[in-house]
Amino acid sequence: MSGLEPLGIPGGDHLREALTNCSDPLAAIEEFQQENGVLLPSLKPALPFLDLHGVKRCEFHQSVLEEVREKLIQKINEVVNGDDKERFQKIETMLEKSFCVIRVASLRPVIMNMLKTLPKIKDVYLKEILDDKELYKEAATEVKRQIWEENQALFGDEVSPLLSQYIREKENTLFSHENSLSTFFLMSPKARRQGEVVQKLTHMVGKSVRLYDMVLQFLRTLFLRTRNMHYCTLRAELLMSLHDQEVNDICAVDPCHKFTWCVDACIREKFVDSKRARELQGFLDGIKRGQEFVLGDLSMILCDPYALNTVALSIMKALQQCINNDVLPRESTDIILLLRMLGLGLGAWDMIDSQVFKEPKLEPVLITKFLPTLAGTVVDDQIRPVVARLSDEAQPVQRPPSQLFLIFIKESEVAAMMALYYTLQVCKNRDKVAICQMLPCLTICQSERHFDDTFLHSLVSYLISMAEEFTNDDFHEVVFNQFFKSGMSKHNVLRHMLRLVYYVHPRIPQEKLTVLMEALKPNQGHSDIINTTYNALVDKIESYQPSPTAQAERLDSPLMSVPAPTPAMM
Asked: Which of 100, 32, 81 lies closest to 61 in space, CA to CA?
């Protein structure tokens, strides 16, 4: 075995020199074996038995080496896990004597295990591992952490593929045409953070506050560069994963920990109740002077689509409670706080980009004008079926949203977000009249919120459940021509449309389907995934076979020839 010369054990070069200068090569080999073999007196008589069984000396020595290596690693672990106050000093002493053979592959696991157990590794060892690609690749994460802490670029290279994988997984959930249901918001927060990427990042960070800060900086930078809200989700999931593993070294220094923990509980319950609303308000109002920068991270936590979804649903539920109790929205403290949280989440990108850490001003007219208007629209939806039953008219009276409502959703992101969730609510209720009223209006939403992937994913899922309505020309016109058509130049909108048509195409009249498929046809500027999805849709349409209509069963009963009785005269 070569590489042991630093320990005073001769290797291949020594044997080659001995054979070159000796007069009897066999004697030289035997002498080398006796000097460097396993020096146990009881072993020497047993070796001939191995020869009789055809076991080569190399195989025997290799098996002994493997056994001794495992025993040594086990002993090192026992020392580290013991109560000896000088246990790390003993490991360092062993490491000083043995690190010189780290490039010997069969002995490397022992050296790496010693390095892994040390809370602080000397820079000279870290540098040598960093300079050798093979050693770096085989080093444990505990060793790499200490390298990463002083090398942010290298850590970024390690983290970047995981972040890309995380975004791909989120997009696959949003765009996949393999499921007609709305699956994005179904998984619980605790189940989500058991995912591969979050668990790998958690392990890479360990208890290192420095590495945790680096990951947060990567997420902020990518969020600013892409406006992708999934990075906000990962920021919250990473912190809560560390919370689950009780990494108090990090949780104790992150000022967002308790706030994120509370928001996580609300997401789990899909509702922000009054008690948790007061807790969250305490966090927002308790930010001390000089610590306003914390608002930047709090806004990222609230910008998480799961948090925005929970807050918006809670506002709709609180608004319904106001309607039931004949209370104005401005009298509900919960609604006011939820609007603050919604505004803070929607303003996350602007706040981090401008570095002006100030909570967005909640316009009073949102509470005094917009919410009552929205509440009135909800009431109209609830009484419309009653009015239709009492009226002689075949079609229910449609009242389009007021001009004031349209101004609000055009100029306010908070109002636009509430309009989106009102639309999802009427879609869930299969209220075709309300859907036809709202969808065309959403095209003027502030910041094009109506084209957010999370909204379109839920909207498409609800529309798929209403597939029968696409036989109606008016419904088809509203959905495709008045709503989706304005965003067809966007790749994400095109993917959501492909998912919708994938499921509802049997209900679309053939001439309209032909026009629609021509409009959806990808061009050279579209990605491979869009081309693949479109081709899958074409194949599905071409292979579609309508269910045969069941014919009425013919009855051969003799009673069929009997004339029907005439009605009795009064």
From this structure: 32
For residue 101, the model assigns a pLDDT of 83
pLDDT of residue 569: 47
Residues 6 or more apart whose Cβ sits within 8 Å of residue 83: none
Which strand (E) or helix (H) includes residue 556?
none
Residues 349, 372: one domain? no
8 Å CB contact between 496 and 532:
no
For residue 245, give its domain range.
152-354
Give the pLDDT band (50/70/90) at residue 168: very high
Distance of CA 167 to the CA centre of its chain: 7
Same-domain pairing of 165 and 128: no
Identify whether residues 293 and 206 lie together within a single domain. yes
Q: Alpha carbon 509 to chain centroid distance?
A: 38
Give pLDDT tens digits for 275-316.
999 999 999 998 888 888 999 999 999 999 999 999 999 999
CB 277 within 8 A of CB 338: yes
How many independent structural domains does the chain possess? Answer: 4
Residue 329, C-beta contacts closer than 8 angstroms, at least 6 positions apart: 319, 322, 335, 367, 371, 372, 375
537 lies in the same domain as 462: yes
Both 309 and 414 in one domain: the answer is: no
Q: pLDDT above 70 covers what percent of the chain?
A: 86
Name the residue among 265, 250, 137 with its Cα closest to residue 202.
250
Q: Are 381 and 426 in contact (CB under 8 A)?
A: yes
How many Cα neighbours within 13 Å face the side chain of 424? 19
> What DSSP assignment string belongs to 88-102?
HHHHHHHHHHHGGGT
